[in-house]
């Protein structure tokens, strides 16, 4: 194996073992058809103004819609949405047929049952290697506090284990 592939494999190994949350990002195309994909490259950027970022691979078929539409919704998935996560990461044509969703006041497709939904206007687009980083200015926020977010770790995803919360509560006592 050459050195570049060795580094790529090590990179995947390192980042595949870094726990992250899981999101589904949605928008519409020019015909108002909903589009969405599973993304774990999500992070907060700024509190003033409220900014978040995520990145999209240049090979994704919906790239131009996400780059040009000017708005998107980020769904921080709840721990019980593993099937939704799989659906939106698959090559399935109509991903929205398998979930409950509706258009928001910003005319974005919003999926029911997420831990949180951040509706954003595109603030900036940055070319970075084989991805484009999209920075969004958060316009609307909805959080379902009774749900727990999904966790991705070592190529597995699911709800954060209850033991984690118990240990955290013990530390506060």
From TrEMBL:
Domain spans labelled Flavin reductase like: 15-159
Claim: Oxidoreductase is one of the keywords in the record: yes
Entry keyword annotation includes Oxidoreductase: yes
Coiled-coil segments on the chain, per record: none
GO terms of molecular function: oxidoreductase activity
InterPro entries tied to this protein: Flavin_Rdtase-like_dom, NADH-dep_flavin_reductase, Split_barrel_FMN-bd
EC number(s) on file: 1.-.-.-
EC top class, as a word: oxidoreductase
Keywords: Oxidoreductase
Pfam families (alphabetical): Flavin_Reduct
PANTHER family assigned: FLAVIN REDUCTASE, FLAVIN-DEPENDENT MONOOXYGENASE, REDUCTASE SUBUNIT HSAB
Family: Belongs to the non-flavoprotein flavin reductase family.
Protein's recorded name: Flavin reductase family protein
Organism: Planococcus shenhongbingii
Lineage: Bacteria, Bacillati, Bacillota, Bacilli, Bacillales
